[in-house]
Write a structure and sequence with these properties.
It is a single chain. The chain is mostly helical. It has three domains: about 60 residues, Tetratricopeptide repeat domain (Serine Threonine Protein Phosphatase 5, Tetratricopeptide repeat, Alpha Horseshoe), CATH 1.25.40.10; about 70 residues, Serine Threonine Protein Phosphatase 5, Tetratricopeptide repeat (Alpha Horseshoe), CATH 1.25.40; about 90 residues, Serine Threonine Protein Phosphatase 5, Tetratricopeptide repeat (Alpha Horseshoe), CATH 1.25.40. The protein is built from 14 helices and no strands. It is elongated, with a radius of gyration of 26 Å.
Length: about 270
Amino acid sequence: MLRYTMNRIIRILFFFLTLSLVNVSFAQQETSTPYQRGQALYNAENYEAAASVFRDLLRDDPSASDARYWLGMSYYHQNKIGDAKQCFRYLTGPGSKEARSFKALGMVFLKESYRAFEALEAFRKAVKLAPGDADGSYWLGMAYLTMMGRGPIGEHPSIGKAKAAFEKALALDRDHPDAGHQLGRVYEGAAGDLYNPNLTDSFYEMGVPYGGDSVDLMSAIAAYKGQIKHTPDHTAARRALATVHSRLGSHTAAIPAFRLLTKEAPE
C-alpha cells in the first residue's frame, strides 16, 4: 500500500513538472520578438524563413535598419544578389556610417563578375569606419586577392596590400576562421612556379631552402600551420600545406599530410 501511494505521488509530481515546463516554453515563445525569431532562424541557417520575418518587420517599420541589414544578409546567403544589393545600397547611402553594411555590400560585389574594384572601395570604407574589425580587413584582402586572380599573383602590384590586409586581420583576431589560409595563398602565389625536386629534407628542416623565392613558401607554410592550429578542420589549409611541403621537396612531411586528407575524404 505504501509503495502504491509513493508511486502515485511521484506520477502526480512528474505530471505537474512536465506541465510547468511546457508553460515556460510557451511563455518564452510568446515573449520573443519577431526580430529575435528572425535572428534565430538566420543563426539556424534557415535564410528563406528569416528573410520572410525581416520583410514583415520592414513592412511595419521601413526605418528598421537592423531588420534591413539581416534581410540583406539572408538574401546574400540565398545568392539573391540583386535583392541583397538593394538592401545594402539603401543602408550605405549619403552620410552612412554603417561599417557592417559597407562590408556586406563589398561581399555582394565580390559575388558578381568584374566588380572587384567596387568591392574594394566598399571594404575600404568599412575598414575606415571600423578599423578594429578583423573581418573588414579580411574582406579587404579578399578583394585584392580576387583582382590578382586575373594574372600571376607574384607580379601583381597589390600583392603587398593583400598581405598587409590579411596580416592585420590576424593581428586583430588570431582565431579568424580563414585569414591565415588566405595569407598563405598570397605567399605561395608570390613564389611563382618554384619547385625544388632536389631539395633535401635536412635543408628544409633548417629553414634555409635553395632559391630566394623559397622564403615565400616557408612563410606560406607558417601561415597554413597557424590556420590549422586555430581551425583544425580547415581542409583547404591542410591541402595547401601538404602541397607546399611537396613543392619544397619535403616529401616526408607532404606524404602524411596527403594521407590524412585521403583518410578524411575517401573517394
